[in-house]
C-alpha cells in the first residue's frame, strides 16, 4: 500500500470550508496601499533616479553591482555586509545596479527603508516593536527582487501580511498548489491596482513576462478588487 503524503498545509486548509475560503481569508487580512499613495511615491523615486541620487536596495551579492571608473567598470569586492553598507554611505562612492544601471546604496539593516517608507506615506509604524501602530503584521515584498532599485523601496511591491498567514508566503511555490495560488494572486492584485510598468516610466518593462502571474490569477485579482475584497492600509494622521 502506498503511503499517503502528510502535509501541514492541508491541515490549515481544513480549518476552512474550502481552499477558496482560505485564499479569501488571506487576501482579506492583507493590506495593500492606495493607488494615489503608490503613484506619488513612484513619482518621487523616478525623480531621484533622474537626478542621479542613489536608490536603496538590500545587499545580496557583489555580482549584482558595479563600480564605474574613468574608462571601465569593475565588480566590487566587499568583505561582508557591514563593509558594503559603510561603502555606500560615503557619497563619493558611486555603486550601480548591474541590470538597471541605477545608482544604489545598501539598506542599513535590510528592512529599514521599507519601514520608513510606510511610516512616511501612511503614518503607520510596523516592525518597530513597542511603538508599532500595526501589530503582528509582516512587511512583505511581493516580488523578491530586493537587490533591484526599481523593486526594493517601492510601495507597489509591498503588502502587509498578518503573521499567521506568512507561513504560506514563506514556502516555495512548488510545495503546494495553494502556495502558488496565493503568491500569484498578490502579484496580480499589485499589477491590477498599480500597473507598475506604467507608473515606473522606465525604458523597459519592470515586470518582465516571466515574472507576470497567470491569466487565471489576473482574473481572480480583478474579481477580488471589483467585489471590494482588497483592503488598503488606512492612514494614521496623528503619527504621520
Please tag this protein with its features.
single chain; 240 residues; alpha/beta; two-stranded parallel ribbon; 9 helices; 9 strands; globular
Computed Rg: 19 Å
Enumerate the strands of the largest sheet in spatial order, edge to edge or round the barrel: 2-6-5-3-4
Q: Low-confidence runs (pLDDT<50, min 5 residues)?
A: none
The run of helices and strands is: HHEHEEEHEEHEEHHHHE
What's the β-strand tally?
A: 9
- The helix content is 25-40%
Structural class: alpha/beta
Shape: globular
Q: Indicate the mean pLDDT.
A: 93
Question: Which strand-content bin applies to the residues?
Answer: 5-15%
User: How many structural domains can be distinguished in the coordinates?
Assistant: 2
**How can the largest sheet be summarized?**
5 strands, mixed
End-to-end C-alpha gap: 62 Å
| Tally of alpha and pi helices | 9
Summarize the structure.
The chain is an alpha/beta fold and 240 residues long.
Descriptive overview:
By secondary structure, the chain is an alpha/beta fold. It has 2 domains: 8-52 and 111-232, no CATH class; 59-106, no CATH class. The chain has 9 helices and 9 strands. It has helices spanning 8-13, 19-29, 35-50, 81-89, 112-122, 166-169, 177-194, 196-199, 215-226; strands at 31-32, 55-57, 65-68, 73-74, 95-97, 103-106, 137-141, 158-162, 231-232. Helix 2 (19-29) crosses helix 7 (177-194) and helix 7 (177-194) crosses helix 9.
